[in-house]
């Protein structure tokens, strides 16, 4: 276990876009350009009486050169830069904690508002792939989550609010920026190769912000990611899966975790509203019927392995039956226990035997490598710890203030 833990204040200073720019000193009144999709930014410029091609120029500076100071945007006239400084800002959420694991996993906790509940986390997991090194970023979409899946640390924290587009894209911006703090502007290159909308929250319950953020990820004027490398993971909000077919072409993952309604009602309570038959039918509608270019050729099935709960041989058989008409790849996830978790992790043997049953039935079935155990990579865990520490620090400060008060009153 070796973890580089960096103090809050040091991270804030090093990782934040320069806090001294006028754009950031007056954040409340200014429009944050960070999360805007191209159509949104084009409209913004047109409304200002400017040409809409300025949107593409500014987006490149923000998302390809990681510039947050308008003064550095050298292909934009001085007059427009001054105007932008007065009314806009480019502001990522504040980093309050970061952990870098020896295996390359990086994890951040961002503050997205006041109060100890306003924290979200983002994790980056590197993996060697035949096409080269992949760095996959798991992005949060909400502060907390209302869906209360029984095995999930985030669900235990309750729902606070939806993230804004700037807060969603800010996680991707900051993860890329963490590799290039000292790199000259024009030599900067993006490091994150893949995104999964699989962090805290249910992304399809924050639909518009998530949709526009994914548009920024795919946009050649921003991150230019291939649609196969952007994955939305849902616990099964059926009407929004159908809506996605009309709105965007990205990969889809389903947090399945149980192969029958009775067990899934318990583990993933949204199943009571959209049971498995409806969910699988929506996935079948999502699969594209045409073209090789689409990312919608199969659905990824996520299945967390809970000891003695959903890992019996008959569960594997039920999976085979359930998925037989759905082009899918199955990803078995060894459970990462968190304090007071009501479940344990299935044994290695049990997971391998589950995988074998599915592979023998013709499914592509992988076991997710456990990475970043030393930095609490289970979703929602690190936020819980940071919140605990913040609470303890505040209690400590209160105690010191009280004892100072007593000493003063005693003369
Ligand atoms: S697993 Fe996902 S949908 Fe379920 S409570 Fe956790 S964050 Fe929410």
UniProtKB/TrEMBL annotation:
CDD domains according to UniProt: Radical_SAM (cd01335)
Top EC category: transferase
The keyword Disulfide bond belongs to this UniProt entry's keyword annotation: yes
GO MF annotations in UniProt: methyltransferase activity
Keyword Transit peptide: no
InterPro entries the record matches: Aldolase_TIM, Methyltransferase_A, RlmN_N, RNA_MTrfase_RlmN, rRNA_lsu_MTrfase_RlmN/Cfr, rSAM, rSAM_sf
Active-site residues per Swiss-Prot or TrEMBL entry: 121 (proton acceptor), 379 (s-methylcysteine intermediate)
Enzyme Commission number: 2.1.1.192
Positions that bind [4Fe-4S] cluster: 145, 149, 152
Cofactor binding note: Binds 1 [4Fe-4S] cluster. The cluster is coordinated with 3 cysteines and an exchangeable S-adenosyl-L-methionine.
Keywords: 4Fe-4S, Cytoplasm, Disulfide bond, Iron, Iron-sulfur, Metal-binding, Methyltransferase, rRNA processing, S-adenosyl-L-methionine, Transferase, tRNA processing
GO terms of biological process kind: methylation
Cofactor(s) it depends on: [4Fe-4S] cluster
Reactions that this protein is recorded to catalyse: adenosine(37) in tRNA + 2 reduced [2Fe-2S]-[ferredoxin] + 2 S-adenosyl-L-methionine = 2-methyladenosine(37) in tRNA + 5'-deoxyadenosine + L-methionine + 2 oxidized [2Fe-2S]-[ferredoxin] + S-adenosyl-L-homocysteine; adenosine(2503) in 23S rRNA + 2 reduced [2Fe-2S]-[ferredoxin] + 2 S-adenosyl-L-methionine = 2-methyladenosine(2503) in 23S rRNA + 5'-deoxyadenosine + L-methionine + 2 oxidized [2Fe-2S]-[ferredoxin] + S-adenosyl-L-homocysteine
Binding site for S-adenosyl-L-methionine: 201-202, 233, 255-257, 336
Function: Specifically methylates position 2 of adenine 2503 in 23S rRNA and position 2 of adenine 37 in tRNAs. m2A2503 modification seems to play a crucial role in the proofreading step occurring at the peptidyl transferase center and thus would serve to optimize ribosomal fidelity.
Annotated protein name in UniProt: Dual-specificity RNA methyltransferase RlmN
Source organism of this protein record: Acinetobacter pecorum
């Amino acid at each position: 276990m070796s973890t580089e833990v960096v103090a809050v204040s040091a991270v804030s200073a090093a990782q934040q876009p320069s806090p001294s720019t006028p754009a950031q000193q007056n954040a409340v009144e200014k429009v944050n350009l960070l999360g805007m999709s191209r159509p949104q930014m084009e409209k913004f410029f047109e409304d200002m009486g400017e040409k809409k091609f300025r949107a593409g120029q500014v987006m490149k500076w923000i998302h390809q050169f990681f510039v947050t100071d308008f003064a550095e945007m050298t292909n934009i006239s001085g007059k427009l830069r001054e105007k932008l400084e007065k009314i806009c800002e480019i502001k990522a959420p504040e980093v309050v904690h970061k952990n870098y694991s020896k295996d390359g996993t990086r994890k951040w906790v961002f503050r997205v508002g006041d109060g100890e509940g306003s924290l979200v986390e983002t994790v980056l997991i590197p993996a060697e792939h035949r096409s080269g090194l992949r760095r996959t970023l798991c992005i949060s979409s909400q502060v907390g989550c209302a869906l209360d899946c029984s095995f999930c640390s985030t669900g235990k924290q309750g729902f606070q609010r939806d993230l804004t587009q700037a807060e969603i894209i800010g996680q991707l911006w900051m993860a890329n920026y963490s590799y290039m703090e000292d790199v000259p502007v024009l030599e900067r290159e993006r490091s994150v190769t893949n995104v999964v909308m699989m962090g805290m929250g249910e992304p399809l319950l924050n639909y518009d912000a998530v949709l526009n953020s994914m548009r920024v990820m795919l946009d050649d004027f921003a991150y230019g990611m291939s649609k196969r490398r952007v994955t939305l993971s849902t616990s099964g909000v059926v009407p929004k899966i159908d809506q996605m077919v009309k709105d965007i072409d990205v990969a889809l993952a389903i947090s399945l975790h149980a192969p029958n309604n009775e067990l899934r009602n318990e583990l993933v309570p949204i199943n009571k509203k959209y049971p498995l038959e409806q969910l699988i039918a929506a996935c079948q509608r999502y699969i594209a019927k045409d073209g090789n270019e689409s990312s919608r050729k199969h659905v990824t099935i996520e299945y967390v392995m809970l000891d003695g709960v959903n890992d019996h041989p008959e569960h594997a058989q039920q999976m085979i039956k359930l998925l037989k008409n759905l082009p899918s790849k199955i990803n078995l996830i060894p459970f990462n226990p968190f304090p007071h978790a009501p479940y344990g992790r299935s044994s290695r043997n049990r997971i391998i035997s589950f995988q074998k049953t599915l592979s023998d039935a013709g499914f592509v079935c992988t076991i997710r490598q456990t990475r970043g155990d030393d930095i609490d990579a289970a979703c929602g865990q690190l936020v819980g710890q940071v919140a605990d520490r913040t609470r303890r620090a505040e209690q400590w400060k209160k105690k010191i203030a009280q004892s100072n008060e007593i000493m003063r009153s005693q003369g």
